[in-house]
Write a sequence for this structure.
């Protein structure tokens, strides 16, 4: 099996295992789906933290308003009590985004553990552990998050809550930074060694028949420019090489310094040597206490 180290820009994302006989189109779609799924899980986990702290999302027209403004405008959140978890606690959201009816501590733990499991499942550290990622891993993490929200909010979440929208795949990312991170699978492409994998080809058309190799590939959108080539040396290798060069340079400096100072021990460099020779005192040695 071919092992792909998938990168986005210069950052490692995950390992992906495939076969050289697979089509470029299928592999690119699969990799893009895993990449986007990991982004979705990251977004859900962020909103999940806000959910267990401050409860469900307020309707759009109530967000950012003070309590006085809400009373003055006679606005009401029809979902707050309907969706509130059993034994809820009041925890006001200073940002004015959520209703403030948060789960009690024991139910907060359910959401926290689910978020930790999901983050661990899609963690980038699996690259160092040489563990490959599949769409099943992404699906398992999403199922864990969905199950936890059903346990804590048995009546469900409001249809406008970001967590529910993400889990129902109806999220609207328009105008957000998250929208720029997602890659449309139909416009996704892979690059390796400065060359683009061509749609319609098999991987073997680009990698040969060797099915036991590791290749660094970069995931891009068709609208993006060609990514930069991978450096020959890794960052750690480059640092080690620079350290060795520095040590050798210091050794050379020390040797040159030693050569420069050695003449000071020569007789011809001694200003008193000629005078001692003239007085016949050149080879006289003194012994303390002698008679």
């Amino acid at each position: 099996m071919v092992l792909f180290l998938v990168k986005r820009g210069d950052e490692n994302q995950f390992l992906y295992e495939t076969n050289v006989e697979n089509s470029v189109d299928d592999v690119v779609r699969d990799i893009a789906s895993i990449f986007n799924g990991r982004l979705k899980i990251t977004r859900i986990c962020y909103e999940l933290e806000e959910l267990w702290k401050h409860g469900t999302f307020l309707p759009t027209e109530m967000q950012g308003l003070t309590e006085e403004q809400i009373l003055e405008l006679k606005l009401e959140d029809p979902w707050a009590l309907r969706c509130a978890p059993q034994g809820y606690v009041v925890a006001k959201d200073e940002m004015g985004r959520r209703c403030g009816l948060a789960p009690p501590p024991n139910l907060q733990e359910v959401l926290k553990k689910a978020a930790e499991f999901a983050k661990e499942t899609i963690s980038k550290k699996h690259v160092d552990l040489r563990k490959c990622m599949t769409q099943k891993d992404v699906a398992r993490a999403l199922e864990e998050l969905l199950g936890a929200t059903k346990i804590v909010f048995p009546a469900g979440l409001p249809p406008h809550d970001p967590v529910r929208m993400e889990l129902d795949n109806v999220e609207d990312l328009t105008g957000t930074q998250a929208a720029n991170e997602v890659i449309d699978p139909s416009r996704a492409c892979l690059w390796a060694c400065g060359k683009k994998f061509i749609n319609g080809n098999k991987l073997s058309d680009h990698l040969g028949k060797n099915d036991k190799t590791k290749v660094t590939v970069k995931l891009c959108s068709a609208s993006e420019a060609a990514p930069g080539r991978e450096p020959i040396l890794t960052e750690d290798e480059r640092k080690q090489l620079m350290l060795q060069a520095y040590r050798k340079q210091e050794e050379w400096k020390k040797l040159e310094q030693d050569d420069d100072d050695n003449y000071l021990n020569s007789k011809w460099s001694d200003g008193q040597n000629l005078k001692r020779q003239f007085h016949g005192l050149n080879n006289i040695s003194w012994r303390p206490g002698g008679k």
User: Anything to note?
Assistant: The chain has a mean pLDDT of 88. The radius of gyration is 34 Å. The first helix runs from residue 24 to 54.
